[in-house]
Here is the input.
Amino acid sequence: MTHFIKKIFGTIKGFLFTVHCPYCGKVIEPNKNCCDKCRKEFPELPLIKYATGGYICTAPFPYDGIFRNAVINFKFHNCGVYAEQFSYEMVRAIKNVYRDKEFDIVTCVPMHKDLLRERGYNQAELLARECAKLLGIKYADLLAKTKKNKTQHSIKAAERVKNVIGVYSPIDKNLIKGKRILIIDDIITTGSTLGECARILNKCKCGEICCCTLCTSLLT
Ligand SMILES: [Zn+2]
Here is the structure.
C-alpha cells in the first residue's frame, strides 16, 4: 500500500472510530462512555420522580448543567450517536431502583410521524433500543402518537396534563396484555407524557409499568 493510501485509510478509520464524551464533546478512548472530568459530576444515586397516575420513573441525571446540554444536543442537534453511551447510565439506574423486577418489554414514548420525518429519529426510541439490548429484553413499539399536540416544553405545567390526553393509541392490544413494561423517554418534567402513555397501556390490561428517563427535571 502506498503511503498516500495508508494515510487516507488512517483518516477514515480515525473518523469512524473517534468517540466523544457526550457531556463535554472531548475525544475519549473508544472503550469509555465519557471523560473522567464529567464522570466526577455524575450523581451517586439515581433520581426518582413519579409520573401522573403514580408511575415510578428513575433517571441517572438531573436536567441541569452538563446533563441538560447533553440531552439538548442529543435531541435537537443530531447527536443520536450518543444513545449507547447514555444507555449504560440508564441501565445502572434501572438496576439500582428496580432491583430484581423483571420486564417483558422495553418500549418508548412515541413521536408523531410528521416530527419523526422532520427530525429523522426519535431520541426516546434510540435510548429504549439500547437499554433493551443491555438488559437482554425485547424492544417493541407499543404505542403510536396519532394526534399532534403542542410541544410540552412550550406550555405551562398546568396545561401539560390536558395537552397529552388522547394523543397516544395502542398499536396492538394483544402485544400489551399481561406484559410487564419498561417505558423509556429522554426527560421527565411534570410526568404527564409518561403518565398518559402508562394510562393507555393500563387500559390495554398490561402488567406492571415502570419508567426510566435520561434526565429528570428538578422543577415541575
Ligand atoms: Zn466530558
Residues 21, 23-24, 26, 34-35, 37-38 surround zinc ion (CB under 6 Å).
